[in-house]
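Budget justification aside, the reviewers requested a transparent look at the raw inputs and outputs of the sequence design task funded under Objective 1. We therefore reproduce one unedited record. The lines immediately below are the structure tokens for a 295-residue chain.
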């Protein structure tokens, strides 16, 4: 998709972080943007910022874990701008905790947003793209979709699933000669507020209360009081990721890793798979934020 001008784009999780930066970047390139998020005030703020910059956008409050909410998002998009040409299934939460203790409600919430949110987005917007023979889907996975750090079991599971889902989708689009492109975005560490995502956990997913317990070294993503939370602010800026996303859409590029920080860890995992062996104890993904082991 070489020309983004005049295209209709939908971005979930669009009120903050990577989603916000991408929505703003798309609007700056002349796209008409539907910004979707579960949080109303920051959603209103990003739509206002886009309008102030001369862009065209609307905001829609949406819970991507709820099919009826995503279906309503699709209908609102059509009413406002027409069928979507670009859909970025980006909404995500940081489901942390040890597998032996994490509450089922936390599993349901993390799966609901990170995985079902992607499934719902594709289900809602893809058919019209296929029918028209054009479009592009961006699904946000993670480098955690290629690694398996402890204390992040629910998050890892969803991101591995998004990677596999996206690969399958891309192959189906090719086999069907649909003209629809797919990008699987695998960010490294980006300065977003995902590790405070507990603020948005709906009541129906709160059985047993927030599950913020993690390993004793404090390396769970959802432990917002840990050194990891402080380190996140110094990571890659979302605007740099947004520029990479727009380039991937234009180039019809599938894999989009935002940096090479985890490449060695991913190679080690792949070597274990190729050897059909039993992995030894691996370093934690979070250690990549602390060069030289300085925590």
């Amino acid at each position: 998709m070489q020309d983004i001008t005049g295209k209709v784009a939908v971005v979930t999780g669009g009120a903050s972080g990577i989603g916000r930066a991408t929505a703003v970047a798309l609007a700056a390139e002349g796209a008409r943007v539907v910004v979707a998020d579960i949080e109303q005030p920051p959603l209103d703020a990003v739509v206002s910022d886009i309008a102030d910059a001369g862009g065209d956008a609307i905001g829609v409050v949406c819970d991507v874990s709820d099919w009826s909410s995503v279906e309503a998002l699709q209908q609102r998009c059509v009413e406002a701008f027409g069928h979507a040409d670009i859909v970025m299934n980006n909404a995500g939460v940081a489901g942390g905790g040890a597998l032996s203790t994490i509450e089922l409600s936390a599993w349901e919430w993390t799966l609901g947003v990170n995985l079902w949110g992607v499934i719902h987005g594709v289900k809602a917007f893809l058919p019209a793209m296929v029918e028209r023979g054009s479009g592009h889907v961006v699904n946000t996975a993670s480098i955690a979709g290629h690694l398996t750090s402890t204390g992040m079991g629910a998050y890892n599971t969803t991101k591995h699933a998004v990677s596999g889902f996206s690969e399958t989708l891309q192959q189906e689009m090719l086999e069907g000669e649909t003209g629809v492109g797919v990008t699987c975005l695998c960010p490294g560490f980006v300065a977003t507020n995902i590790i405070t995502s507990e603020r948005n956990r709906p009541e129906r997913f709160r059985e047993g209360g927030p599950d913020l317990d993690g390993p004793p070294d404090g390396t769970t993503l959802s432990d917002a009081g840990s050194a990891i939370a402080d380190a996140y602010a110094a990571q890659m800026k979302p605007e740099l990721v947004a520029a990479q996303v727009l380039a991937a859409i234009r180039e019809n590029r599938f894999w989009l890793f935002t940096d090479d920080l985890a490449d060695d860890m991913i190679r080690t995992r792949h070597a274990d798979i190729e050897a059909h062996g039993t992995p030894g104890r691996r370093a934690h993904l979070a250690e990549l934020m602390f060069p030289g082991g300085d925590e």
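The chain is about 40% helix and 15% strand. The CA atoms of residues 67 and 120 lie 6 Å apart. Computational costs for records of this kind are itemized in the attached budget.
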